[in-house]
Protein backbone atom coordinates (compact mmCIF):
# COMPACT_ATOMS: atom_id res chain seq x y z
CA UNK A 1 0.00 0.00 0.00
CA UNK A 2 1.37 3.39 -0.92
CA UNK A 3 0.74 5.91 1.83
CA UNK A 4 0.25 8.45 -0.99
CA UNK A 5 -2.92 6.60 -2.05
CA UNK A 6 -4.24 6.72 1.51
CA UNK A 7 -3.44 10.43 1.78
CA UNK A 8 -5.41 11.08 -1.39
CA UNK A 9 -8.43 9.05 -0.20
CA UNK A 10 -8.31 10.54 3.32
CA UNK A 11 -9.69 13.83 2.02
CA UNK A 12 -12.54 12.19 0.05
CA UNK A 13 -16.11 11.98 1.39
CA UNK A 14 -18.26 11.08 -1.62
CA UNK A 15 -17.39 8.58 -4.37
CA UNK A 16 -19.07 9.00 -7.77
CA UNK A 17 -18.77 5.97 -10.06
CA UNK A 18 -18.88 5.68 -13.77
CA UNK A 19 -20.84 2.46 -14.37
CA UNK A 20 -20.74 1.03 -17.94
CA UNK A 21 -17.34 -0.63 -18.31
CA UNK A 22 -16.08 0.57 -14.90
CA UNK A 23 -18.43 -1.41 -12.61
CA UNK A 24 -20.20 -3.72 -15.08
CA UNK A 25 -18.98 -5.63 -18.12
CA UNK A 26 -21.25 -4.75 -21.01
CA UNK A 27 -19.20 -6.55 -23.68
CA UNK A 28 -19.62 -10.04 -22.31
CA UNK A 29 -23.26 -9.67 -21.19
CA UNK A 30 -24.51 -8.06 -24.39
CA UNK A 31 -22.55 -10.37 -26.70
CA UNK A 32 -24.01 -13.41 -24.92
CA UNK A 33 -27.53 -12.01 -25.26
CA UNK A 34 -27.05 -11.39 -29.00
CA UNK A 35 -25.69 -14.94 -29.48
CA UNK A 36 -28.58 -16.44 -27.51
CA UNK A 37 -31.07 -14.48 -29.58
CA UNK A 38 -29.58 -15.45 -32.94
CA UNK A 39 -29.37 -19.11 -31.85
CA UNK A 40 -33.15 -18.90 -31.34
CA UNK A 41 -33.91 -17.04 -34.56
CA UNK A 42 -35.60 -18.80 -37.49
CA UNK A 43 -34.48 -17.75 -41.00
CA UNK A 44 -35.51 -19.83 -44.01
CA UNK A 45 -32.26 -19.45 -45.98
CA UNK A 46 -29.93 -21.93 -44.26
CA UNK A 47 -26.72 -20.33 -45.49
CA UNK A 48 -27.78 -16.89 -44.25
CA UNK A 49 -28.74 -18.41 -40.91
CA UNK A 50 -25.38 -20.18 -40.65
CA UNK A 51 -23.53 -16.98 -41.48
CA UNK A 52 -25.36 -15.20 -38.63
CA UNK A 53 -25.18 -18.03 -36.11
CA UNK A 54 -21.68 -19.35 -36.70
CA UNK A 55 -19.61 -16.86 -38.68
CA UNK A 56 -20.75 -13.40 -37.69
CA UNK A 57 -18.72 -11.54 -35.02
CA UNK A 58 -21.36 -10.55 -32.45
CA UNK A 59 -18.74 -9.17 -30.05
CA UNK A 60 -17.88 -6.62 -32.70
CA UNK A 61 -21.60 -5.79 -33.03
CA UNK A 62 -21.63 -5.12 -29.25
CA UNK A 63 -18.59 -2.85 -29.45
CA UNK A 64 -20.21 -0.89 -32.29
CA UNK A 65 -23.48 -0.66 -30.31
CA UNK A 66 -21.54 0.84 -27.41
CA UNK A 67 -19.65 3.21 -29.73
CA UNK A 68 -22.88 4.57 -31.22
CA UNK A 69 -24.13 5.35 -27.71
CA UNK A 70 -20.88 7.13 -26.87
CA UNK A 71 -21.02 9.30 -29.98
CA UNK A 72 -24.67 10.14 -29.31
CA UNK A 73 -24.15 11.16 -25.66
CA UNK A 74 -21.18 13.29 -26.76
CA UNK A 75 -23.33 15.01 -29.39
CA UNK A 76 -26.21 15.58 -26.95
CA UNK A 77 -23.89 16.86 -24.19
CA UNK A 78 -22.78 19.56 -26.66
CA UNK A 79 -26.31 20.65 -27.59
CA UNK A 80 -28.02 20.08 -24.19
CA UNK A 81 -30.30 17.14 -25.14
CA UNK A 82 -33.32 19.29 -26.16
CA UNK A 83 -35.61 16.28 -26.79
CA UNK A 84 -34.77 14.61 -23.46
CA UNK A 85 -33.64 11.39 -25.12
CA UNK A 86 -32.79 8.68 -22.58
CA UNK A 87 -30.04 6.11 -22.94
CA UNK A 88 -32.72 3.44 -23.40
CA UNK A 89 -34.01 5.28 -26.47
CA UNK A 90 -30.48 5.86 -27.78
CA UNK A 91 -29.69 2.17 -27.43
CA UNK A 92 -32.85 1.24 -29.34
CA UNK A 93 -32.15 3.72 -32.15
CA UNK A 94 -28.59 2.42 -32.43
CA UNK A 95 -29.76 -1.21 -32.43
CA UNK A 96 -32.14 -0.49 -35.30
CA UNK A 97 -29.37 1.23 -37.29
CA UNK A 98 -26.91 -1.63 -36.69
CA UNK A 99 -29.40 -4.32 -37.73
CA UNK A 100 -30.24 -2.38 -40.89
CA UNK A 101 -26.54 -2.06 -41.75
CA UNK A 102 -24.70 -4.93 -40.08
CA UNK A 103 -21.19 -3.85 -38.96
CA UNK A 104 -18.30 -6.06 -40.10
CA UNK A 105 -15.18 -6.49 -38.01
CA UNK A 106 -12.30 -5.34 -40.23
CA UNK A 107 -10.09 -8.08 -41.67
CA UNK A 108 -11.69 -11.02 -39.90
CA UNK A 109 -12.54 -14.42 -41.35
CA UNK A 110 -15.99 -14.19 -39.78
CA UNK A 111 -16.71 -10.92 -41.52
CA UNK A 112 -15.55 -12.23 -44.85
CA UNK A 113 -17.88 -15.19 -44.41
CA UNK A 114 -20.81 -12.85 -43.89
CA UNK A 115 -19.66 -10.60 -46.71
CA UNK A 116 -19.58 -13.66 -48.92
CA UNK A 117 -23.34 -13.97 -48.41
CA UNK A 118 -23.73 -10.33 -49.35
CA UNK A 119 -24.10 -8.24 -46.17
CA UNK A 120 -27.15 -6.42 -47.42
CA UNK A 121 -29.10 -9.64 -47.84
CA UNK A 122 -28.02 -10.88 -44.39
CA UNK A 123 -29.03 -7.57 -42.82
CA UNK A 124 -32.38 -7.67 -44.57
CA UNK A 125 -33.11 -11.21 -43.36
CA UNK A 126 -32.17 -10.21 -39.78
CA UNK A 127 -34.24 -7.04 -39.99
CA UNK A 128 -37.28 -9.14 -40.87
CA UNK A 129 -36.60 -11.88 -38.31
CA UNK A 130 -36.00 -9.65 -35.29
CA UNK A 131 -39.41 -8.25 -34.35
CA UNK A 132 -40.01 -5.31 -32.01
CA UNK A 133 -40.37 -7.79 -29.13
CA UNK A 134 -36.94 -9.27 -29.84
CA UNK A 135 -35.38 -5.82 -30.10
CA UNK A 136 -36.91 -4.72 -26.80
CA UNK A 137 -35.63 -7.87 -25.09
CA UNK A 138 -32.14 -7.22 -26.49
CA UNK A 139 -32.27 -3.55 -25.52
CA UNK A 140 -33.23 -4.55 -21.97
CA UNK A 141 -29.94 -6.48 -21.71
CA UNK A 142 -28.32 -3.13 -20.85
CA UNK A 143 -30.45 -3.17 -17.64
CA UNK A 144 -29.04 -6.56 -16.62
CA UNK A 145 -25.29 -6.21 -17.15
CA UNK A 146 -23.05 -8.39 -15.00
CA UNK A 147 -20.57 -6.81 -12.54
CA UNK A 148 -16.82 -7.33 -12.83
CA UNK A 149 -15.53 -9.93 -10.34
CA UNK A 150 -14.37 -7.28 -7.82
CA UNK A 151 -17.33 -4.88 -8.11
CA UNK A 152 -19.88 -6.19 -5.59
CA UNK A 153 -17.39 -6.79 -2.77
CA UNK A 154 -15.47 -3.62 -3.64
CA UNK A 155 -18.56 -1.40 -3.40
CA UNK A 156 -19.60 -3.05 -0.12
CA UNK A 157 -16.17 -2.38 1.41
CA UNK A 158 -16.12 1.23 0.18
CA UNK A 159 -19.72 1.84 1.32
CA UNK A 160 -18.74 1.36 4.95
CA UNK A 161 -16.44 4.38 4.74
CA UNK A 162 -17.76 6.69 1.99
CA UNK A 163 -21.07 7.89 0.63
CA UNK A 164 -21.08 6.29 -2.79
CA UNK A 165 -23.23 6.27 -5.90
CA UNK A 166 -23.36 6.52 -9.65
CA UNK A 167 -22.62 9.50 -11.83
CA UNK A 168 -23.55 7.96 -15.13
CA UNK A 169 -24.90 8.79 -18.56
CA UNK A 170 -27.40 5.94 -18.09
CA UNK A 171 -31.00 6.65 -17.09
CA UNK A 172 -32.50 6.08 -13.63
CA UNK A 173 -34.80 3.21 -14.54
CA UNK A 174 -31.92 1.33 -16.18
CA UNK A 175 -29.58 1.94 -13.23
CA UNK A 176 -32.13 0.72 -10.68
CA UNK A 177 -32.78 -2.48 -12.67
CA UNK A 178 -29.04 -3.03 -12.99
CA UNK A 179 -28.32 -2.43 -9.29
CA UNK A 180 -31.04 -4.91 -8.26
CA UNK A 181 -29.82 -7.51 -10.79
CA UNK A 182 -26.09 -7.12 -10.09
CA UNK A 183 -26.39 -6.41 -6.34
CA UNK A 184 -24.66 -3.02 -6.47
CA UNK A 185 -24.95 -1.32 -3.08
CA UNK A 186 -25.34 2.33 -4.13
CA UNK A 187 -26.24 4.95 -1.53
CA UNK A 188 -27.55 7.16 -4.34
CA UNK A 189 -28.08 6.99 -8.09
CA UNK A 190 -27.34 10.12 -10.13
CA UNK A 191 -28.10 9.79 -13.83
CA UNK A 192 -28.12 11.86 -17.00
CA UNK A 193 -31.93 12.06 -17.14
CA UNK A 194 -32.03 13.44 -13.58
CA UNK A 195 -29.29 15.99 -14.17
CA UNK A 196 -30.37 17.16 -17.62
CA UNK A 197 -27.11 16.58 -19.48
CA UNK A 198 -24.41 13.97 -20.12
CA UNK A 199 -20.81 13.61 -19.02
CA UNK A 200 -18.36 15.21 -19.81
CA UNK A 201 -20.53 18.35 -19.52
CA UNK A 202 -19.16 20.17 -16.41
CA UNK A 203 -22.76 20.69 -15.27
CA UNK A 204 -22.95 16.98 -14.42
CA UNK A 205 -19.97 17.06 -12.04
CA UNK A 206 -20.85 20.42 -10.48
CA UNK A 207 -24.46 19.48 -9.80
CA UNK A 208 -23.33 16.14 -8.31
CA UNK A 209 -21.10 18.01 -5.86
CA UNK A 210 -23.72 20.66 -5.00
CA UNK A 211 -26.21 17.92 -4.07
CA UNK A 212 -23.78 16.86 -1.32
CA UNK A 213 -23.14 20.43 -0.12
CA UNK A 214 -19.58 20.27 -1.45
CA UNK A 215 -18.36 23.80 -2.15
CA UNK A 216 -17.04 23.93 -5.72
CA UNK A 217 -14.10 26.22 -4.96
CA UNK A 218 -12.91 25.19 -1.54
CA UNK A 219 -13.93 21.55 -1.13
CA UNK A 220 -14.13 19.88 -4.56
CA UNK A 221 -11.39 17.40 -3.53
CA UNK A 222 -13.95 15.82 -1.14
CA UNK A 223 -15.71 14.54 -4.27
CA UNK A 224 -14.01 11.68 -6.11
CA UNK A 225 -14.77 10.41 -9.61
CA UNK A 226 -13.95 6.74 -10.21
CA UNK A 227 -13.81 5.57 -13.84
CA UNK A 228 -12.10 3.31 -16.37
CA UNK A 229 -12.39 6.14 -18.94
CA UNK A 230 -9.81 8.92 -19.12
CA UNK A 231 -12.13 11.53 -20.71
CA UNK A 232 -14.42 11.24 -17.67
CA UNK A 233 -11.57 11.81 -15.21
CA UNK A 234 -10.16 14.71 -17.22
CA UNK A 235 -13.56 16.45 -17.06
CA UNK A 236 -13.95 15.69 -13.33
CA UNK A 237 -10.48 17.09 -12.56
CA UNK A 238 -11.34 20.28 -14.49
CA UNK A 239 -14.13 20.72 -11.89
CA UNK A 240 -11.63 20.19 -9.06
CA UNK A 241 -12.61 16.63 -8.13
CA UNK A 242 -10.26 13.93 -6.92
CA UNK A 243 -9.86 11.28 -9.68
CA UNK A 244 -9.26 7.51 -9.59
CA UNK A 245 -8.53 5.46 -12.71
CA UNK A 246 -9.50 1.75 -12.73
CA UNK A 247 -6.87 0.11 -14.93
CA UNK A 248 -7.86 -3.56 -15.16
CA UNK A 249 -10.91 -3.39 -17.46
CA UNK A 250 -9.81 -5.06 -20.74
CA UNK A 251 -12.48 -3.36 -22.85
CA UNK A 252 -11.99 0.20 -21.54
CA UNK A 253 -9.21 2.79 -21.66
CA UNK A 254 -5.66 1.73 -20.91
CA UNK A 255 -3.05 4.08 -19.43
CA UNK A 256 -1.13 5.96 -22.13
CA UNK A 257 2.38 4.68 -22.93
CA UNK A 258 3.87 7.79 -21.31
CA UNK A 259 2.19 6.89 -17.97
CA UNK A 260 -0.40 8.41 -15.66
CA UNK A 261 -1.86 11.68 -17.03
CA UNK A 262 -1.64 14.70 -14.71
CA UNK A 263 -5.41 14.84 -14.23
CA UNK A 264 -5.44 11.35 -12.64
CA UNK A 265 -4.71 11.36 -8.89
CA UNK A 266 -4.63 7.62 -8.31
CA UNK A 267 -4.45 4.45 -10.44
CA UNK A 268 -5.77 1.17 -9.01
CA UNK A 269 -6.38 -2.20 -10.64
CA UNK A 270 -9.92 -2.58 -9.31
CA UNK A 271 -12.41 -1.58 -6.59
CA UNK A 272 -10.96 -3.96 -4.00
CA UNK A 273 -7.56 -2.32 -4.39
CA UNK A 274 -9.22 1.08 -3.98
CA UNK A 275 -10.85 -0.13 -0.73
CA UNK A 276 -7.38 -0.98 0.65
CA UNK A 277 -6.56 2.72 0.81
CA UNK A 278 -9.14 3.25 3.55
CA UNK A 279 -7.41 3.80 6.89
CA UNK B 1 -55.48 -10.26 3.98
CA UNK B 2 -58.05 -8.57 1.79
CA UNK B 3 -57.74 -9.67 -1.82
CA UNK B 4 -58.66 -6.09 -2.72
CA UNK B 5 -55.34 -4.92 -1.25
CA UNK B 6 -53.46 -7.47 -3.33
CA UNK B 7 -55.34 -6.44 -6.47
CA UNK B 8 -54.34 -2.84 -5.88
CA UNK B 9 -50.67 -3.72 -5.31
CA UNK B 10 -50.56 -6.15 -8.27
CA UNK B 11 -50.61 -3.25 -10.71
CA UNK B 12 -47.82 -1.33 -8.92
CA UNK B 13 -44.17 -1.40 -10.09
CA UNK B 14 -42.48 1.50 -8.29
CA UNK B 15 -43.02 2.54 -4.66
CA UNK B 16 -42.27 6.15 -3.71
CA UNK B 17 -42.00 6.78 0.05
CA UNK B 18 -42.54 9.87 2.07
CA UNK B 19 -39.80 9.70 4.72
CA UNK B 20 -40.13 12.12 7.69
CA UNK B 21 -42.82 10.68 9.93
CA UNK B 22 -43.71 7.85 7.52
CA UNK B 23 -40.44 5.83 7.64
CA UNK B 24 -38.53 7.57 10.45
CA UNK B 25 -39.65 9.00 13.80
CA UNK B 26 -38.39 12.56 13.99
CA UNK B 27 -40.21 13.45 17.22
CA UNK B 28 -38.45 10.97 19.47
CA UNK B 29 -34.98 11.34 17.90
CA UNK B 30 -34.95 15.14 17.82
CA UNK B 31 -36.46 15.55 21.30
CA UNK B 32 -33.79 13.24 22.75
CA UNK B 33 -31.04 15.25 21.02
CA UNK B 34 -32.40 18.53 22.40
CA UNK B 35 -32.62 17.05 25.91
CA UNK B 36 -29.07 15.68 25.67
CA UNK B 37 -27.79 19.04 24.52
CA UNK B 38 -29.50 21.05 27.26
CA UNK B 39 -28.30 18.55 29.90
CA UNK B 40 -24.77 19.39 28.74
CA UNK B 41 -25.27 23.16 28.55
CA UNK B 42 -23.71 25.49 31.14
CA UNK B 43 -25.76 28.54 32.15
CA UNK B 44 -24.71 30.60 35.19
CA UNK B 45 -28.23 31.40 36.46
CA UNK B 46 -29.24 28.15 38.19
CA UNK B 47 -32.98 28.85 38.08
CA UNK B 48 -32.88 29.54 34.31
CA UNK B 49 -30.85 26.35 33.79
CA UNK B 50 -33.33 24.33 35.84
CA UNK B 51 -36.24 25.76 33.87
CA UNK B 52 -34.58 24.66 30.62
CA UNK B 53 -33.35 21.28 31.86
CA UNK B 54 -36.29 20.14 33.95
CA UNK B 55 -39.38 22.17 33.21
CA UNK B 56 -39.27 23.12 29.54
CA UNK B 57 -41.23 20.94 27.07
CA UNK B 58 -38.61 20.00 24.45
CA UNK B 59 -41.03 17.66 22.67
CA UNK B 60 -43.15 20.71 21.92
CA UNK B 61 -40.04 22.53 20.64
CA UNK B 62 -39.49 19.58 18.22
CA UNK B 63 -43.09 19.71 17.00
CA UNK B 64 -42.77 23.45 16.36
CA UNK B 65 -39.43 22.92 14.57
CA UNK B 66 -41.15 20.43 12.28
CA UNK B 67 -44.11 22.77 11.75
CA UNK B 68 -41.84 25.63 10.67
CA UNK B 69 -40.27 23.34 8.06
CA UNK B 70 -43.69 22.30 6.78
CA UNK B 71 -44.85 25.90 6.41
CA UNK B 72 -41.62 26.84 4.63
CA UNK B 73 -41.73 23.97 2.09
CA UNK B 74 -45.38 24.83 1.41
CA UNK B 75 -44.46 28.47 0.78
CA UNK B 76 -41.51 27.53 -1.46
CA UNK B 77 -43.54 24.96 -3.42
CA UNK B 78 -45.90 27.80 -4.31
CA UNK B 79 -43.16 30.18 -5.51
CA UNK B 80 -40.75 27.60 -6.96
CA UNK B 81 -37.85 27.95 -4.46
CA UNK B 82 -35.97 30.66 -6.39
CA UNK B 83 -32.99 30.71 -3.99
CA UNK B 84 -32.58 26.89 -3.99
CA UNK B 85 -32.91 26.65 -0.21
CA UNK B 86 -32.34 23.10 1.04
CA UNK B 87 -34.13 21.47 3.95
CA UNK B 88 -30.87 21.63 5.91
CA UNK B 89 -30.85 25.41 5.57
CA UNK B 90 -34.56 25.64 6.39
CA UNK B 91 -34.03 23.58 9.53
CA UNK B 92 -31.16 25.85 10.63
CA UNK B 93 -33.16 29.04 10.00
CA UNK B 94 -36.09 27.60 11.95
CA UNK B 95 -33.84 26.50 14.84
CA UNK B 96 -32.41 30.01 15.12
CA UNK B 97 -35.90 31.52 15.17
CA UNK B 98 -37.15 29.05 17.80
CA UNK B 99 -34.18 29.63 20.10
CA UNK B 100 -34.63 33.39 19.81
CA UNK B 101 -38.32 33.07 20.68
CA UNK B 102 -38.79 29.88 22.69
CA UNK B 103 -42.17 28.26 21.93
CA UNK B 104 -44.35 27.41 24.93
CA UNK B 105 -46.71 24.45 24.91
CA UNK B 106 -50.17 25.90 25.56
CA UNK B 107 -51.61 25.29 29.03
CA UNK B 108 -48.86 23.07 30.36
CA UNK B 109 -47.23 23.19 33.79
CA UNK B 110 -43.80 23.05 32.16
CA UNK B 111 -44.53 26.12 30.08
CA UNK B 112 -45.81 28.07 33.02
CA UNK B 113 -42.61 27.20 34.88
CA UNK B 114 -40.55 28.68 32.07
CA UNK B 115 -42.87 31.65 31.72
CA UNK B 116 -42.39 32.24 35.44
CA UNK B 117 -38.71 32.87 34.71
CA UNK B 118 -39.67 35.29 31.96
CA UNK B 119 -39.43 33.54 28.59
CA UNK B 120 -37.41 36.33 27.02
CA UNK B 121 -34.65 36.00 29.59
CA UNK B 122 -34.61 32.20 29.20
CA UNK B 123 -34.44 32.54 25.42
CA UNK B 124 -31.65 35.05 25.68
CA UNK B 125 -29.60 32.80 27.96
CA UNK B 126 -30.10 29.86 25.59
CA UNK B 127 -29.24 31.98 22.56
CA UNK B 128 -25.91 32.85 24.17
CA UNK B 129 -25.18 29.34 25.42
CA UNK B 130 -25.88 27.49 22.17
CA UNK B 131 -22.98 28.33 19.87
CA UNK B 132 -22.93 27.74 16.12
CA UNK B 133 -21.25 24.37 16.76
CA UNK B 134 -24.09 23.28 19.05
CA UNK B 135 -26.69 24.42 16.53
CA UNK B 136 -24.98 22.53 13.71
CA UNK B 137 -24.83 19.38 15.81
CA UNK B 138 -28.55 19.73 16.63
CA UNK B 139 -29.42 20.44 13.00
CA UNK B 140 -27.54 17.31 11.94
CA UNK B 141 -29.92 15.25 14.11
CA UNK B 142 -32.33 15.35 11.16
CA UNK B 143 -29.73 13.28 9.22
CA UNK B 144 -29.74 10.58 11.90
CA UNK B 145 -33.42 9.96 12.59
CA UNK B 146 -34.39 6.51 13.84
CA UNK B 147 -36.70 4.27 11.80
CA UNK B 148 -40.08 3.08 13.11
CA UNK B 149 -39.95 -0.53 14.38
CA UNK B 150 -41.39 -1.97 11.13
CA UNK B 151 -39.47 0.22 8.65
CA UNK B 152 -36.20 -1.66 8.05
CA UNK B 153 -37.76 -5.13 7.70
CA UNK B 154 -40.73 -3.70 5.78
CA UNK B 155 -38.54 -2.00 3.17
CA UNK B 156 -36.40 -5.14 2.79
CA UNK B 157 -39.49 -7.28 2.14
CA UNK B 158 -40.94 -4.77 -0.33
CA UNK B 159 -37.59 -4.33 -2.10
CA UNK B 160 -37.63 -7.95 -3.26
CA UNK B 161 -40.77 -7.26 -5.27
CA UNK B 162 -40.83 -3.55 -6.19
CA UNK B 163 -38.41 -0.83 -7.19
CA UNK B 164 -38.56 1.44 -4.18
CA UNK B 165 -37.18 4.78 -3.09
CA UNK B 166 -37.85 8.13 -1.51
CA UNK B 167 -39.93 10.98 -2.86
CA UNK B 168 -39.19 13.47 -0.14
CA UNK B 169 -38.89 17.16 0.56
CA UNK B 170 -35.57 16.40 2.28
CA UNK B 171 -32.28 16.99 0.47
CA UNK B 172 -30.04 14.29 -1.00
CA UNK B 173 -27.15 14.63 1.42
CA UNK B 174 -29.54 14.35 4.39
CA UNK B 175 -31.33 11.32 2.90
CA UNK B 176 -28.07 9.46 2.22
CA UNK B 177 -26.83 10.07 5.77
CA UNK B 178 -30.18 8.91 7.12
CA UNK B 179 -30.31 5.76 4.98
CA UNK B 180 -26.80 4.74 6.07
CA UNK B 181 -27.57 5.45 9.74
CA UNK B 182 -31.03 3.81 9.81
CA UNK B 183 -30.24 1.00 7.34
CA UNK B 184 -32.96 1.93 4.83
CA UNK B 185 -32.59 -0.18 1.70
CA UNK B 186 -33.59 2.34 -0.99
CA UNK B 187 -33.10 1.49 -4.65
CA UNK B 188 -33.13 5.20 -5.44
CA UNK B 189 -33.34 8.51 -3.59
CA UNK B 190 -35.42 11.30 -5.14
CA UNK B 191 -35.33 14.56 -3.21
CA UNK B 192 -36.60 18.12 -3.46
CA UNK B 193 -33.17 19.56 -4.31
CA UNK B 194 -32.82 17.11 -7.24
CA UNK B 195 -36.29 17.78 -8.58
CA UNK B 196 -36.34 21.56 -8.13
CA UNK B 197 -39.54 21.85 -6.09
CA UNK B 198 -41.33 20.47 -3.02
CA UNK B 199 -44.34 18.22 -2.55
CA UNK B 200 -47.27 18.75 -3.06
CA UNK B 201 -46.21 20.51 -6.30
CA UNK B 202 -47.46 18.14 -9.09
CA UNK B 203 -44.07 18.55 -10.80
CA UNK B 204 -42.54 16.36 -8.08
CA UNK B 205 -44.86 13.39 -8.70
CA UNK B 206 -44.82 13.70 -12.50
CA UNK B 207 -41.03 13.91 -12.72
CA UNK B 208 -40.73 10.93 -10.37
CA UNK B 209 -42.92 8.86 -12.72
CA UNK B 210 -41.16 10.05 -15.90
CA UNK B 211 -37.80 8.95 -14.51
CA UNK B 212 -39.18 5.39 -14.46
CA UNK B 213 -40.68 5.61 -17.95
CA UNK B 214 -44.20 5.55 -16.49
CA UNK B 215 -46.60 7.20 -18.93
CA UNK B 216 -48.55 9.87 -17.05
CA UNK B 217 -51.87 9.21 -18.78
CA UNK B 218 -51.98 5.47 -19.33
CA UNK B 219 -49.78 3.97 -16.63
CA UNK B 220 -49.72 6.27 -13.58
CA UNK B 221 -51.25 3.50 -11.43
CA UNK B 222 -47.91 1.63 -11.74
CA UNK B 223 -46.47 4.35 -9.47
CA UNK B 224 -47.49 4.20 -5.81
CA UNK B 225 -47.06 6.92 -3.19
CA UNK B 226 -46.76 5.67 0.42
CA UNK B 227 -47.21 8.25 3.18
CA UNK B 228 -48.56 8.94 6.66
CA UNK B 229 -49.71 12.38 5.42
CA UNK B 230 -53.02 12.84 3.65
CA UNK B 231 -52.02 16.02 1.72
CA UNK B 232 -49.22 14.04 0.06
CA UNK B 233 -51.56 11.25 -1.06
CA UNK B 234 -54.19 13.70 -2.27
CA UNK B 235 -51.59 15.38 -4.51
CA UNK B 236 -50.24 12.01 -5.74
CA UNK B 237 -53.75 10.80 -6.62
CA UNK B 238 -54.37 14.02 -8.59
CA UNK B 239 -51.42 12.89 -10.77
CA UNK B 240 -53.00 9.44 -11.19
CA UNK B 241 -50.78 7.51 -8.79
CA UNK B 242 -51.85 4.60 -6.59
CA UNK B 243 -51.90 5.75 -2.94
CA UNK B 244 -51.22 3.94 0.36
CA UNK B 245 -51.84 5.54 3.76
CA UNK B 246 -49.75 4.36 6.74
CA UNK B 247 -52.08 4.71 9.71
CA UNK B 248 -50.04 3.73 12.77
CA UNK B 249 -47.73 6.75 13.14
CA UNK B 250 -48.84 8.50 16.35
CA UNK B 251 -47.33 11.86 15.40
CA UNK B 252 -48.65 12.05 11.82
CA UNK B 253 -52.10 12.32 10.22
CA UNK B 254 -54.92 10.10 11.45
CA UNK B 255 -57.79 8.95 9.26
CA UNK B 256 -60.70 11.42 9.32
CA UNK B 257 -63.71 10.45 11.48
CA UNK B 258 -65.76 9.87 8.33
CA UNK B 259 -63.28 7.19 7.18
CA UNK B 260 -60.90 6.66 4.25
CA UNK B 261 -60.87 9.63 1.83
CA UNK B 262 -61.59 8.80 -1.82
CA UNK B 263 -58.05 9.65 -2.91
CA UNK B 264 -56.58 6.89 -0.71
CA UNK B 265 -56.54 3.45 -2.38
CA UNK B 266 -55.30 1.41 0.55
CA UNK B 267 -54.86 1.87 4.32
CA UNK B 268 -52.30 -0.28 6.17
CA UNK B 269 -50.97 -0.04 9.71
CA UNK B 270 -47.31 -0.20 8.69
CA UNK B 271 -44.79 -1.31 6.04
CA UNK B 272 -44.86 -4.97 7.12
CA UNK B 273 -48.62 -5.06 6.58
CA UNK B 274 -48.10 -3.50 3.16
CA UNK B 275 -45.57 -6.24 2.30
CA UNK B 276 -48.23 -8.88 3.06
CA UNK B 277 -50.16 -7.77 -0.02
CA UNK B 278 -47.41 -9.06 -2.32
CA UNK B 279 -48.53 -12.26 -4.04
Automatic annotation (TrEMBL), chains A, B:
Gene3D superfamilies per the UniProt record, alphabetical? HAD superfamily/HAD-like, Putative phosphatase, domain 2
> What's the protein name?
Haloacid dehalogenase, type II
What domain of life is recorded for the organism? Eukaryota
User: From the record, what ranges are coiled-coil?
Assistant: none
Please name the source species: Mycosarcoma maydis
Q: Which UniProt keywords apply?
A: Hydrolase
Task: Give GO terms: molecular function aspect only.
Answer: phosphatase activity
List the NCBIfam families hit by this protein, alphabetically.
HAD-SF-IA-v2
Q: What InterPro entries does the annotation carry?
A: HAD-like_sf, HAD-SF_hydro_IA, HAD_sf, PGP-like_dom2, S-2-haloacid_dehalogenase
